[in-house]
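Sequence design from tokenized structure. All designs in this work follow the same two-part layout: the structure record, then the generated sequence. An example of the structure record is given first.
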């Protein structure tokens, strides 16, 4: 499992960590992991994509639940264009506080 990296909306396999044992192939719930020699020709670009994204994404060490919309995306053609290639921030940026702390300062009257 050390070979998996988690991006915002996709897992990738680190080609340097994968030992080609094929244990993950039957474990994949959507049947998109293949032994390299069994990879369909229309999926060859994913070898390069995995290598490109591996250094950008964090390693995962335990199984996680699928994303909430995983079933919607399963089998959808052309979804690579929707791939988020940058890791998400741990938390969304904070919005400025509203209220008295951020009111324009009034001139002082003596």
């Amino acid at each position: 499992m050390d070979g998996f990296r988690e991006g915002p909306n996709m897992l990738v396999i680190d080609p340097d960590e994968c030992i080609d044992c094929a244990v993950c192939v039957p474990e994949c719930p959507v049947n998109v992991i293949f032994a390299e020699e069994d990879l369909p020709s229309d999926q060859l670009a994913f070898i390069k994509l995995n290598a490109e994204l591996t250094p950008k994404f964090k390693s995962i060490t335990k199984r996680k639940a699928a994303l909430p919309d995983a079933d919607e995306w399963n089998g959808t053609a052309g979804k690579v264009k929707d791939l988020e290639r940058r890791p998400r921030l741990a938390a969304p940026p904070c919005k400025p506080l509203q209220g008295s702390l951020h009111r324009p300062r009034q001139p002082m009257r003596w």
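Residues 100-105 have pLDDT under 50 and may be disordered. We note this feature because it recurs in several other targets discussed in the main text.
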